[in-house]
Design goal:
Structural class: alpha/beta
Strand order of the largest sheet: 3-2-1-4-5-6-8
Largest sheet: 7 strands, parallel
Helix content: 40-55%
Distance between the termini: 43 Å
Shape: globular
CATH architecture of the largest domain: 3-Layer(aba) Sandwich
Number of strands: 9
CATH class of the largest domain: Alpha Beta
Low-confidence stretches: none
Length: 295
């Protein structure tokens, strides 16, 4: 079998893909990329039998060394929005120079994202990276992920915080999102990696089967908690001023604002999905996911 390298292995998605894929392939065929080989997470991966390779998206030379002998690269997109463009350029260039045969890239599912949209700056790196991969001549499989279901809890806070305010307060309007749990995206990635030759130069839209609004989410949370949870979609100034008054960091407010406006504009209201075909079942209902977090 080919040597497969999974990046982002100490993060939530990469580690889940590695763990699931290990059930389908010999450990000797799997390597994982870590920034610090002595970190607790890296040592845990090594203890599980994974070959750990050291590399950073910021350091192309380290990637060239890490990619040596790799046939298939599962490339988890960088989490640093500001540095993502040069980092991704390093990954693609290093993969080409190292002779990687096939890249699986975790891109984003974006429905008609306009260049003047607030979210475009943060998400345009995915569009650029897809273009670089195609232009490289390397075989590719583009995995376009919708927003994680976990994002809901990130926006709303803990159960205690939610019940203290009893309001879903986000500038998301009536926009719908095809949320998907990270676990399901990892499962889909592992399944596709098991037969890379069957997915050459394919693009998969990995969106949830259910598309819901945050007003619906408030309704689910009311049922789960047994308390009335309201939904308010404020204008941007009111949203930013209110969160500032409560001491929320400006960076976090900015992130929620641009994603909230994108949701309102239907950017994550994906028209199609390939996820159920890959998993062999419908995606987890959002209400069920919320019950695990807020139940």
């Amino acid at each position: 079998m080919s040597k497969i390298l999974i990046t982002g292995a100490t993060g939530g998605l990469g580690s889940a893909v590695a763990t699931l894929f290990k059930k389908q392939a010999p450990s000797s065929d799997i390597a994982v990329l870590v920034r610090d080989g002595n970190s607790e997470k890296a040592l845990r991966l090594a203890g599980q039998g994974f070959e750990t390779r050291i590399g950073s998206y910021d350091d192309k030379d380290s990637l060239l060394k890490a990619f040596d002998g790799v046939d298939v690269l599962y490339f988890v997109s960088g989490s640093d929005v500001v540095a993502r463009v040069p980092q991704h350029q390093n990954v693609v260039q290093a993969a080409k120079e190292a002779g990687v045969d096939h890249i699986f890239y975790t891109s984003a599912s974006l429905n008609d994202l306009s260049e003047d949209a607030p979210l475009y700056g943060a998400m345009s790196a995915h569009i650029q990276t897809e273009e670089w991969i195609k232009a490289s001549g390397i075989k590719y499989t583009l995995l376009r992920h919708n927003l994680y279901s976990e994002v809901i809890a990130m926006f709303l806070g803990t159960k205690e915080q939610l019940l203290a305010g009893k309001t879903v307060f986000l500038p998301t309007g009536s926009g719908r999102t095809a949320f998907v749990s990270r676990a399901e995206l990892a499962e889909a990635g592992a399944k596709l990696l098991a037969r890379p030759s069957a997915h050459v130069n394919k693009i998969y839209e990995l969106n949830g089967n259910e598309k819901i609004t945050f007003a619906q989410i408030a309704g689910y949370l009311s049922e789960i908690s047994g308390q009335e949870i309201g939904y308010v979609s404020p204008d941007v100034k009111t949203f930013e001023d209110t969160l500032t008054k409560y001491g929320v960091p400006a960076e976090y407010i900015g992130m929620m604002t641009v994603f909230g406006l994108a949701i309102a504009d239907g950017v994550f209201d994906a028209p199609t999905t390939d996820l159920d075909k890959i998993l062999g079942r419908k995606s987890q209902p959002v209400a069920e996911f919320l019950r695990t977090v807020y139940g």
